[in-house]
C-alpha cells in the first residue's frame, strides 16, 4: 500500500476540546489560526498549531467580499471539508455563518450537525452572548462542542456600524462579563474574545474555567488567534493594529508571478532542461 501525507508525518497528540481545557489548567498558551483549504490546513497542522478555525472570514480573504454576512452554509461546509482533509492533529472548528443559527434552535442544531457530519469538523463556533445560550445548550446537548465569540462580532457589523474596539464603556464591559459566564454555563468549551481592552480580556480569562482565545484582546488570554492571510501578508486591504505580520507572502507571490510573466514573454521559460 502506498504511503500518503497522512500516514504518519504529523507529530504530536491529537488536540481535543479536553486538551484545550488541560492547557488552560497547566498555563500553556493555545495557538489558533484560520484555514480555508487543504494545503493551508496541512501546513498549519504540520507547524503544530493547536486549533484551526474555518472562519467565515473566508468571505473577505478568499471570496473578496466586504463583510462576512454573505457567507452561506454551503460555503462553510465546502471549505471546512477541504480543511479537514489536511489535518491530523489540530482541533478543527467550523464557523456557523450568519442566519444559520439565529432563526431558531432547530435550524441551529441542524446546521451544526451538517458541519460535523458532512465536513467532519470537531466543533462549531457561533457569535453572541446571553441571547444565544439556549441554542448553545441545545447543540451541546446533542453532542456537538460549541465555541463562543464575544466582543467585536463581525456578523453584527451592520448593527455596530464600525470595527472599533468594543466594551470600552462599563455597561458593555459588564455585558461581556455576563455573556462569557453565560456561555460557559450553557456548555461552551471555549470563547473567542475579539477587539476588547486587554485588562477586560484578562479579567474574563481569569474568571472562566474554559479557555479564552483572544484576537486583538491583549496578551493575557489563554490563547491567541489570527486570520492566517493577515499574518502572512496575503490580505493587505487593511492591517488591524493587533495583526503581526510574520511574512509578506503577498509581495513575494506578486514578484514571482511577474518574474514568470517576463520569462514567458522573453522565451526564457521553459528551457531545454525543462522540456521533454
Provide the fold topology.
Blueprint lengths: L16 H10 L3 E5 L3 H9 L4 E4 L3 H4 L11 H13 L5 E5 L9 H13 L5 E3 L7 H9 L4 E6 L5 H4 L9 H17 L3 E5 L3 H10 L4 E4 L7 E4 L1 H4 L17 H18 L10
Helix pairs in contact: 2-4, 5-6, 6-8, 8-9
What does this structure look like?
This protein is of the alpha/beta class. It has 2 domains: 17-245, TIM Barrel; 248-276, no CATH class. It is 40% helix and 13% strand. It is built from 11 helices and 8 strands. The protein has helices at 17-26, 38-46, 58-61, 73-85, 105-117, 133-141, 157-160, 170-186, 198-207, 228-231, 249-266, and strands at residues 30-34, 51-54, 91-95, 123-125, 146-151, 190-194, 212-215, 223-226. The chain has an 8-stranded parallel barrel, surrounded by 7 helices. β1 (30-34), α2 and β2 form a beta-alpha-beta unit. α2 packs across α4 (73-85), α5 crosses α6 and α6 (133-141) runs parallel beside α8 (170-186). The longest helix has 18 residues, at 249-266. The radius of gyration is 20 Å and the shape is globular. Residues 1-10 have low confidence and may be disordered.
Share of helical residues: 40-55%
Rg, Cα atoms, Å:
20 Å
Structural class: alpha/beta
Q: Mean of residue pLDDT?
A: 93
Q: How many helical stretches?
A: 11
Supply the CATH class of the largest domain: Alpha Beta
Beta fraction of the residues? Answer: 5-15%
Q: List SSEs in N-to-C order.
A: HEHEHHEHEHEHHEHEEHH
Low-confidence stretches: 1-10
CATH fold name of the largest domain = TIM Barrel
- Widest sheet: strand ordering: 1-2-3-4-5-6-7-8
DSSP strand tally:
8
General shape: globular
Q: How many domains in all? A: 2
Reported for the largest beta sheet, the result is: 8 strands, parallel, barrel
| CATH 2nd-level architecture of the largest domain | Alpha-Beta Barrel
Q: Which homologous superfamily in CATH is the superfamily of the largest domain?
A: Phosphoenolpyruvate-binding domains
**Ends distance:** 30 Å
Amino acid at each position: 500500500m502506498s504511503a500518503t501525507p497522512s500516514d504518519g508525518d504529523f507529530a504530536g497528540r491529537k488536540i481535543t476540546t479536553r486538551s484545550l481545557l488541560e492547557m488552560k489548567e497547566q498555563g500553556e498558551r493555545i495557538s489558533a489560526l484560520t484555514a480555508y483549504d487543504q494545503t493551508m490546513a496541512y501546513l498549519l497542522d504540520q507547524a503544530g498549531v493547536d486549533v484551526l478555525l474555518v472562519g467565515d472570514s473566508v468571505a473577505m480573504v478568499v471570496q473578496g467580499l466586504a463583510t462576512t454576512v454573505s457567507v452561506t452554509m454551503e460555503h462553510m461546509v465546502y471549505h471546512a471539508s477541504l480543511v479537514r482533509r489536511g489535518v491530523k492533529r489540530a482541533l478543527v472548528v467550523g464557523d456557523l455563518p450568519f442566519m444559520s443559527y439565529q432563526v431558531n434552535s432547530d435550524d441551529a442544531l441542524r446546521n451544526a450537525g451538517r458541519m460535523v457530519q458532512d465536513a467532519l469538523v470537531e466543533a462549531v463556533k457561533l457569535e453572541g452572548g446571553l441571547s444565544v445560550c439556549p441554542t448553545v445548550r441545545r447543540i451541546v446537548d446533542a453532542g456537538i462542542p460549541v465555541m463562543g465569540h464575544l466582543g467585536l462580532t463581525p456578523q453584527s457589523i451592520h448593527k455596530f456600524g464600525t470595527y472599533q474596539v468594543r466594551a470600552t464603556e462599563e455597561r458593555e464591559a459588564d455585558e461581556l462579563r455576563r455573556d462569557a459566564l453565560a456561555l460557559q454555563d450553557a456548555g461552551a468549551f471555549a470563547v473567542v474574545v475579539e477587539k476588547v481592552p486587554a485588562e477586560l480580556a484578562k479579567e474574563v480569562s481569569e474568571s472562566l474555567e474554559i479557555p479564552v482565545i483572544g484576537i486583538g484582546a491583549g496578551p493575557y488570554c489563554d490563547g491567541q488567534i489570527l486570520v492566517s492571510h493577515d499574518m502572512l501578508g496575503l490580505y493587505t486591504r487593511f492591517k488591524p493594529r493587533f495583526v503581526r505580520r510574520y511574512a509578506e507572502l503577498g509581495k513575494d507571490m506578486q514578484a514571482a508571478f511577474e518574474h514568470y510573466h517576463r520569462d514567458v514573454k522573453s522565451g526564457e521559460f521553459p528551457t531545454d532542461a525543462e522540456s521533454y
